[in-house]
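User: Can you predict the 3D structure for this chain?
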Amino acid sequence: MQNLDPKQTACFLSAVQCGTVRAAAEQLGLEPSTVSRNITALETNLAMSLVERGRLGVRATQAGDLLIAYLSQQGAALDLLQSEFDALVGMKRGNVSIAVGEGFVGDLFDNALTAFSSAYLA
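Assistant: Here is the predicted structure, written as structure tokens:
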């Protein structure tokens, strides 16, 4: 299995959510044939049938349901990673290493750490 193509997975998800390839195409601003080709390419890549096509539209197969769950988890993991990056940028998360000589420990606790705590831990 190769990496999942975001265009293909977007077409797959949209078709399953909308219920038809035509509705997915409208939602994505694509031609229905493009949506259908992307789903077929994804199915070929995964060597699995992901949707059942019928007169009334499309619906996910068991393999399609597994892919939907995977993509959902992947999206949640990406959101978590972004929030962790945001916390680092905003100095709400991270490590601080301090090296001080013995004579400066008192000043560190009395002044520097108090000011740091007020600014970043509040």
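The CA atoms of residues 108 and 114 lie 8 Å apart. Strands lie at 51-54, 57-60.
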